[in-house]
Amino acid sequence: MSGYNDLSRIRTLRAVVFLIFGAIVLRLAYIQLIDTRYKDMAQRNVLHPVTLYPARGEVYDRNGEFLVQSRECYDFMVVYKDLPRSGFDTLRICSILGITPEKLERELRNARMRPRAPRRILSFVPKEAKLLLDECNLRGFYTVYRTERQYPRKIGGNLLGYVGEVSPEMLKRYPDYNAGDYIGLTGVEAAYEDVLKGRNGLRIEEIDTHGAIKGSYMDGAFDTLPEHGKSIVCTIDARLQLFAEELMRGKVGAAVAIEPSTGEILMMVSSPTYDPDELVGRQRGNNYMKMLYNKRQPLFNRAVRAKYPPGSTFKLVQGLIGLQEGVLKPTDMYPCHSGYRSGRVRVKCHEHSSPLNLYFAVSTSCNAYFCYVFRNILDNPKYGSVKEGFDVWKEYVESFGFGRNLDTDFLGEGDGYVPDRQFYDKRYRGSWNSLTVLSLAIGQGELGCTPLQMANLAAIIANRGYYYIPHIVRSVEGQDSLDRRFYEKHYTKVDPKYFEPIVEGMWRGVNVDGTSRWAALPGYDVCGKTGTAQNPHGKDHSTFLSFAPRENPRIAISVYVENAGFGASMALPIASLLEEFYLTGEVKRQYMLDYVRNKEVYYPNYDK
Questions:
Q1: Separation CA 372–CA 461 (nearest Å)
Q2: What number is the average pLDDT over the span 20-37?
Q3: What's the farthest any 2 CA atoms get from each other in the chain?
Q4: Which of 240, 251, 277, 373 stands the most exposed, by the fewest C-beta atoms within 10 Å?
């Protein structure tokens, strides 16, 4: 019996041994044939992948001048496990890089947490410093080539935008990017990121047992070259942009100019602006925080995002709707006795002759005249009620590009605001009429427009009823054309024939007897309309809308200056100087230039 038990134990032990041996064989086979983890770990001891960053594409103005370029710089990297045990010259490294020993030590402690992973110690290392580091032959440290942006003209901060490193949150949204990559964050840099960014390359370096680089693995068989970003040509005229920024300096507001025949944006200024070079390099973070907490918000692009009341410039839209709806003829006369009155409602107006027709009402910017026109539109008996008339009015206004996004190629474009009947039903509990919303007649009340939308209105009138979608890029390297939407005409709901009386009034306002006479340029038949937008927080805002010449116009422009008073006091001379500079190539009216430069504007909204 005992022999049987001994035999059973031997068999059991033998089975256990076979099982253990079989498990070992299977594990070895799995490791050698299937699992590549240990092979990869071994290769990482001798192979070092290095990302090769491409240069971003250049940006030119419409005349071929550089707006944005890329210049050579480097990232200073470390792989902690490769650092020599005998130490290295800390002070030498810090001296070359211009950093403190404390910062270097802090970065090395962070690198120690993942000793095999490359870690960036410092970005934006200039080429001169890189050459000095190469002479030191520092084991464990290396440099990675990349580029940084530079702005030769130092203009268009909000327009061109800036580039920054992708954040962890962005990496979740953009899986094609890796930590350490840079991405356009605002402006043209963001809008055309896919074109400008290029494509990363890869170099696999072979390292010996001492950490020295022997060269590319297998003579570069697995290396890929970076692909340079494509260049783009902007619609911007750099000289006009520079001059506009000079004229808007010390003021809060925006100026936008469009070529009516194409929709190309010739100039786009948001003021205050900033030197785009301030958001490049090691001081970028500090400069960004200063701008972020600046009360005048230089990072806020007022040209496409601000929501301003258009003021008297909006009377042009009221006149066009009235003509189309048949409730107004150019010869219709209305009285103005220092304003419009109906019951207890009064809208003030400046002194001028009365009664007056449409031409004179446009040229002199009569408030009373357009109050009559607006009420006639809403109270039109062919509609069942004032609310139905209001719905029709709103459709007309939206056809001019207000209250909605224009679908430009510029990210962050605002919609502005045009109220609907539901808004007033809620505010007045359903009980309201044309007199209740009378402030809309003169571009006040709840209306909100971006300076880009107002410049587009100037282009619409210049074209007698249609516009091309405003856009900031003229061409892209390697592409025959832009998106087809930029070549399509977008028509308003107003027939072209009704634009002529409005154009005539604008022309008279500049060249005969109106509020815009300071904008006259002999030989160029400038057409313009002043606007004074009421501001409950301080002095009124100054705005001006214009195009020139009257026939075959080359430029349509809108200028908006906060807290600057009448339209003719500040917005008009700025717009007129810009038109003169663009149309003639120079400015001869030195008296007007001195006036704009020396005129002080008080900002109660920002200077508290």
A1: 22
A2: 66
A3: 135
A4: 277
